[in-house]
Write a structure and sequence with these properties.
mainly alpha, ARM-type_fold, ARM-like
Length: 223
């Protein structure tokens, strides 16, 4: 227990130091990424430690392609995805894991593919589906944060060419209806929909056709 607390504090310090861009590659050069991932693997059942480990990965890799490559070589996606699956409904740990995944896959196609193979899209829609059902909402704040994180990940997938399907839109909009009072979730969703239909989107016509089909089905259903 004492060891885990010490490791947690050390990871938190490392994460805070990596807020400064100049520190990112310096720490990575002396093995920080391997140390963080080893700590995460050894203490994956400790959500507080996992939060700091994911924060450290996110801040080490954000806007730092060299560190993303090092994280890829160290197998970073799988342990972070495990944490997202375990603790995605915790506001602190879920957000840290989401930030780590975004930092890893935003500019790296092979890590994006790995995340898809590990079920990131399933996690997104399972989360939206669950949080749209009030019977499962155990904490309004935690639930809203989980929705925000799912939409942020979904936005990245969509911008990478993974189109929103009719069923995806239905789940997303139903979930937003359940969280209509949460301004950040609504804002993230608007940004997602705007990006999906932007003129520069590589598959704008295909995405627009899917949106039109959703509108037709919704109209027939009386929505």
């Amino acid at each position: 227990m004492a060891e885990a607390i010490i490791v947690e504090k050390a990871l938190g310090l490392l994460a805070n130091l990596c807020i400064l861009p100049a520190n990112k590659e310096c720490f990575a050069a002396v093995g920080a990424i391997d140390v963080v991932l080893e700590s995460l693997r050894q203490h994956s059942n400790d959500p507080l430690l996992a939060t700091e480990a994911c924060r450290a990965i996110a801040l080490l890799c954000e806007n730092c392609p060299a560190n993303v490559e090092a994280a890829e070589a160290a197998g970073a996606v799988a342990p972070v995805m495990e944490i997202l699956g375990k603790y995605g409904e915790r506001a602190d740990t879920g957000t840290a894991a989401c930030q780590a995944i975004l930092a890893l896959i935003a500019e790296n196609d092979s890590l994006l593919t790995e995340a898809l193979e590990l079920g990131i899209k399933d996690w997104i829609y399972e989360t939206l589906e669950k949080q749209a059902d009030h019977k499962h909402i155990f904490s309004r704040y935690n639930s809203a944060v989980a929705v925000r994180n799912a939409i942020r990940l979904l936005t990245l997938l969509e911008s990478s060419g993974i189109l929103l399907e009719v069923e995806d839109l239905a789940i997303l909009l139903r979930c937003l209806g359940a969280h209509r009072a949460d301004a950040p979730a609504q804002l993230f969703a608007l940004q997602l929909l705007h990006a999906a239909l932007a003129p520069e989107h590589p598959a704008r016509e295909a995405q627009a056709a899917i949106f039109a089909e959703y509108s037709k089905r919704a109209a027939r259903a009386g929505f």
